[in-house]
Amino acid sequence: MSPSFFEIVQLSNGDYALRRIDDDSAPLVRISFSNEAREMMEDRDMSVAKAMIAAGIEAAGNVTHDIDWEDDELDVSDAQPAYTLH
């Protein structure tokens, strides 16, 4: 299996996305900022998107070993709202 290389790009609608360099399919991650958030970041939105993606990759690496991928008790039909409040 050959290694994958990734890039962070700004999409035509202003969102940021993480995608494989050699693949034109849907991005792996997409980040969208509201106009209010963009104004508060004062043109630092690309830096914030990079930091968010890096933190997500690090967090995924930290929890992957704790997930039981074969857990039969997980039922997608029991899903709660489409958001998580932290």
Features:
86 residues; alpha+beta; 3-stranded antiparallel sheet; 2 helices; globular
Short description:
By secondary structure, the protein is an alpha+beta fold.
Descriptive report:
By secondary structure, the protein is an alpha+beta fold. The chain has a domain at 6-60. It is built from 2 helices and 3 strands; from the N terminus they run E-E-E-H-H. The longest helix has 19 residues, at 45-63.
Number of strands: 3
Shape: globular
Using the CA coordinates, give the radius of gyration: 16 Å
How much of the sequence is in beta strands? 15-25%
Number of helices: 2
The end-to-end distance, rounded to whole angstroms, is: 38 Å
Strand arrangement, major sheet: 1-2-3
**Poorly predicted ranges (pLDDT <50, ≥5 residues)?**
none
Largest sheet geometry: 3 strands, antiparallel
Please write the string of helix (H) and strand (E) elements: EEEHH
Class derived from helix and strand content:
alpha+beta
Average pLDDT figure: 80
Helix percentage = 25-40%
